Amino acid sequence: MKKTKTKVKMGQVDFVLFATIMILVAVGIVMVYSASSYTALHSKAYNNDDMYFLKKQGEAAIIGLIAMVFVVKFDYHKIKNKTTLIMIIAVILLLVVFAFPANKGAQRWIKIPGLPSIQPSEIAKYTVVLYMAKSISNKGEKIKTFKYGVMPYLLVSGFYAGLVLAEKNLSIASVIMIVTLMILFSSGCKKSHIAFVMSLVAMGGIAATVLVPYRMRRLMSFLNPWADPQKDGYQLIQSFLALGSGGILGTGLGKSRQKCYYIPEPHNDFIFSIIGEELGFIGCIFVVSLFLVLIWRGIRIAIKAKDVYGTILAIGITGVIAVQAIINIAVVTGSMPVTGVPLPFISYGGSALLFNLIAMGILLNISRQTTI
């Protein structure tokens, strides 16, 4: 993959992308409040405060938007020299999580009293993108060889995905490997090499599912959720009920019934169900359209980037958001097995929102430096 040197234009950020991001964040904050208010109001754990999750998500949004604006003004090429340091920090954080107690059988969070919680896997997925962008931009025609163009990325991505998988987070580990394949394909790797890697990733995913009982149960419940409607199939059935009761126009903002202890933690991975119930098919189409616009602008930025480094960064960042959005919506609509992938910018989660906005800052920065 090679780009010729052309005249570079320093200009304004991609306004369409910026506006799309802001709308997604706004929709997310409103829907987090709507989906979580009932649970928070009736729970002593949340101080019976219906705005508990709204406040936390709002704080994360403000910090994230400030960070995004800072990164927009910070030349993305300067990140290249910090990539090794970021990789080391990510590994340390991924290991530190094991010092903290498990939550529902998974160890994904670093929770220090008085400080915001951190989910290192959110850093890991973008760390892999940064590494691949830096390495591939220096690789030249070697990218077409398996030894130099595929194996290093398979090993590094596999290492980070393995650490994330050890935290009992198969979903984000899968996102890391899928995005790795997307970047390799876009970088000019041979199709035979990509096919081989895809087969390895697929076999790894199958093994990680079949060998772990609860993941196997999720797969079976996806095929027929009504076979076990009180346990493994419960969440998906409740999602169907939410989407179905929403109809075309929805029941109205704040008027969801499924958020009232039917869908567990409706402000998290299944928030799209609440959108479907309250805002209807029209609301779902609106949200899907926003993600399609974001993906379109991300691809456009990648094509117009002034160098290979910027192109790979744009592809990777856009890929992370696209893959997560597709998986989340597919899960909620029963198109694939239930897995814990949040809907970017919309699902509750301070770490995810913060690092997604920082990544968007990098993407917007790339949009400022385009070829004429």
Structural overview:
With 372 residues, the protein is mainly alpha-helical. The chain has one domain. The chain has 13 helices and 2 strands; from the N terminus they run E-H-H-H-H-H-H-H-H-H-H-H-H-H-E. The two termini are 19 Å apart. The model has no long low-confidence stretch (mean pLDDT 88). Pathway: Cell wall biogenesis; peptidoglycan biosynthesis. Its main location: membrane. Peptidoglycan polymerase that is essential for cell division.
How large is the radius of gyration? 21 Å
Distance between the termini: 19 Å
Strand order of the largest sheet: 1-2
How many DSSP helices? 13
Determine the mean pLDDT.
88
Largest sheet data: 2 strands, antiparallel
Q: Please provide the ordered H/E string of secondary-structure elements.
A: EHHHHHHHHHHHHHE
Count of beta strands: 2
What percent of residues adopt helix (DSSP H or I)? Answer: 55-70%
Strand share of the residues?
Answer: under 5%
Low-confidence stretches: none
Inertia-based shape: globular
Pfam families: FTSW_RODA_SPOVE (PF01098)
Organism: Clostridium brassicae
Subcellular location: Cell membrane
Function: Peptidoglycan polymerase that is essential for cell division.
